[in-house]
Amino acid sequence: MKKILCTLAAATLLVGCGGNAQKAEQPALNLMKAEDFTATIDGKQVGLYTLTNGTITMQVTNFGGRVVSLWTPDRDGNMEDIVLGYDKLDRYVNNTGERFLGAPVGRVANRINKGEFELDGVKYNIPQNSNGHALHGGNKGIDMVVWDVEYVADNAITLVLHSKDGEDGFPGNLDITMTYTLTQDNEFEVTYHAKTDKKTVVNLSHHSFFNLKGEGNGTIEDHILTIKADKITPTDAGLIPTGELLAVDGTPFDFREPHAIGERIGADDVQLKNGGGYDMNWVLAREDNGQVETVATLYEPQSGRAMDVATDQVAIQFYSGNFFDGKYAGKYGRPIKYRESVALETQKHPDAINHPEFPSIVLNPDEVYTHVCVYKFYTK
Q: Of the residues 345, 349, 355, 371, which is catalytic?
């Protein structure tokens, strides 16, 4: 079995949790209300859980295993919620606005060309839910279902999901265990373990949208980004990889040294035009494959907030919020606007099952799927 650990570094305060006793008072935080996330869906109880490590507070719902809010301090100790989300469960359930806010995505994150792939001579078809392609697992994926809550502590929650053979067209019964932990090192750790009873494909990721100024507080084009990668996987107009690897030297995709996101986002480049800005997969220049290492850093100069991303994966998708248009509001009534959030999704390459030259996403019954992703928060 391979294991996914997604660590978002954070120091948190437990302020109340769906079924947890209230541990601390922090009235400055405008936390979501547990009663607005309490429901029964498909015969399963849904709730809201508030986790803390003493400095950073995070709220999670077991509908889709979503991070709803994440409060971190700036350099002066002022708290802001730095992830996009909604204030009520029904907005997630009814898919009002952006579907993937704060969610784990899969069974296969990113895109599968035409939703088609073949395993051992058998052809499989995944619902085409994005411009004729399958995106983030199809119509339901792992983000539009209720996860079972296996364990809750002040700073951690473990969720489990049984995805049945044939769901969204994928083969095999897939069992996923995912744990979110807020560590004393200001890390939010997400661990996934997945096992199948039939040969299948798995490529999970975490899809929080970050604005280090706070949700709805302005552009991310002035955020400074570093990515430890010397290649990207270029795409066609449908954002499907061509199978090539493109060196970043001399291109707007070279973030080996820090650059403001908006510095080159308007360059006359076909890849930027395809994605409406940054929306592509970077091939990480890893020092030690299989180990967790820091591969990206995001820094917001105004607040002083910074976030390191560490992983054991081979790639990272960077998306600069190009398709938000302000039509929908976030948790606090502020519109979710164009280029006001960043997603940094550790993963294997998009459409890998249709590109044998890419790292494999095939999972066999005698294996365990694992993945580590770390988002570490601090200030400068």
A: 345
